[in-house]
Automatic annotation (TrEMBL):
Coarse class of the protein's main subcellular location: membrane
Transmembrane segments: 12-32, 61-81, 93-114, 120-139, 151-173, 193-214, 281-303, 309-327
Topology within the bilayer: Multi-pass membrane protein
UniProt-annotated location(s): Cell membrane
InterPro entries, alphabetized: ABC_BtuC-like (IPR037294), ABC_transptr_permease_BtuC (IPR000522)
Species name: Sutcliffiella tianshenii
Family classification: Belongs to the binding-protein-dependent transport system permease family. FecCD subfamily.
Protein name per Swiss-Prot or TrEMBL: Iron complex transport system permease protein
CDD domains: TM_ABC_iron-siderophores_like
Length: 334
């Protein structure tokens, strides 16, 4: 790991926080409509109803806030998934949470003609939660209880099932495909802060819980038998971690759609900086995840300007090479 002492890790958090703030400001300033830092400040201090001020207040600010929240949520949920399953490739996408959210939204559009983004948010959160609970329940069946292998297999099975059902519905219903295609690609564009207020309290509870389970997860990483001998209630810790994953991953998918790779990439980057101590990994993942999605969203505005690509496409471009590297290192020991 790069940062070895406590003081170095604290300094790293401060530097990361400054970078996060700069990325947040850049997200408000840069885009198709030319703005500057001074103009952005005037939009909040001396709002005059101009087109630029409206864009800053009503479009850019909510977009930056949502990107930061979603990026942090996906990164931390990926961290706890990897810790719980001992699988370096665990993420909301691989464990069926994204697929469950997508399936519920497509069902609502196909059979009930739902068009409201607010309704999409709640349906996606419900679908993600159902998928996560189903994976956790199936992975817990049997005398051995919850094991990393069973959880991984259950997640892969449900991801394949929900994805197949979703594709089947979209094939027979082109109208549904047109309505949800942009959401399915993952995007923070066009979202309003009211979608955050809908699931924000759940995400906030999950972040707070993450601050208290780091030490227990460190002991759990040593093995269930060792953790139990040290007084850890392994079943309770696993359940709390699972609920945190559901709230963070489900909430982020509900807000922005199934954005991929952040949950895989960021925990590994955080481990490069601070090692395997989950008490440090959680705050580092929070900051790095927010930075990555903010940067990806800024890049999404310029790739095919004046059009924009969904930010989920940008994270896939960034994350795919890293995913291949992790997979090769995991399977070949490199």
């Amino acid at each position: 790991m790069l940062l070895r002492t406590t003081s170095q890790k604290i300094i790293g958090l401060l530097v990361g926080s400054i970078l996060l703030f700069l990325c947040f400001v850049a997200s408000i300033i840069y885009g198709y409509t030319d703005t500057s830092l001074g103009l952005a400040l005037d939009a909040f201090r001396n709002f005059d109803g101009s087109n630029e001020h409206i864009i800053v207040q009503s479009v850019r600010l909510p977009r930056a806030v949502i990107a930061a929240i979603v990026g942090a949520s996906l990164a931390v949920s990926g961290l706890w998934m990897q810790a719980l399953t001992k699988n370096p490739l665990a993420s909301p996408g691989i464990f069926g949470i994204n697929a469950g959210a997508s399936f519920f939204v497509v069902v609502a559009v196909s059979f009930f003609s739902v068009t409201s983004l607010q309704t999409y948010t709640w349906l996606a959160f419900l679908g993600a939660s159902v998928a996560a609970f189903a994976v956790y329940f199936i992975g817990s069946i049997g005398r051995e209880g919850l094991t990393p292998m069973k959880l991984t297999l259950a997640g892969a099975a449900f991801a394949a099932m929900f994805s197949s059902l979703t594709q089947g519905l979209l094939v027979v219903n082109e109208t549904a495909l047109d309505q949800v295609l942009f959401w399915l690609a993952g995007s923070v564009q066009g979202r309003k802060l009211d979608v955050v207020t809908a699931v924000g309290p759940y995400i906030a509870v999950a972040f707070i819980a993450s601050l208290f389970i780091g030490k227990k997860m460190n002991l759990l990483a040593m093995g269930d038998d060792v953790a139990t001998s040290l007084g850890v209630k392994t079943g309770l810790v696993k359940l709390v971690a699972a609920v945190v994953i559901i709230l963070l991953a489900g909430g982020s998918v509900a807000i922005a759609g199934p954005i991929v790779f952040i949950g895989i990439v960021i925990p590994h980057v955080a481990r490069y900086f601070v090692g395997t101590d989950h008490r440090w990994l959680a705050p580092y993942c929070t900051i790095l995840g927010a930075i990555l999605l903010l940067v990806a969203d800024i890049g999404a505005r310029y790739v095919i300007m004046p059009q924009e690509v969904p930010v989920g496409v940008m994270t896939a471009i960034i994350g795919t090479p890293f995913f291949i590297y992790i997979a090769r290192r995991g399977f070949h020991g490199k």
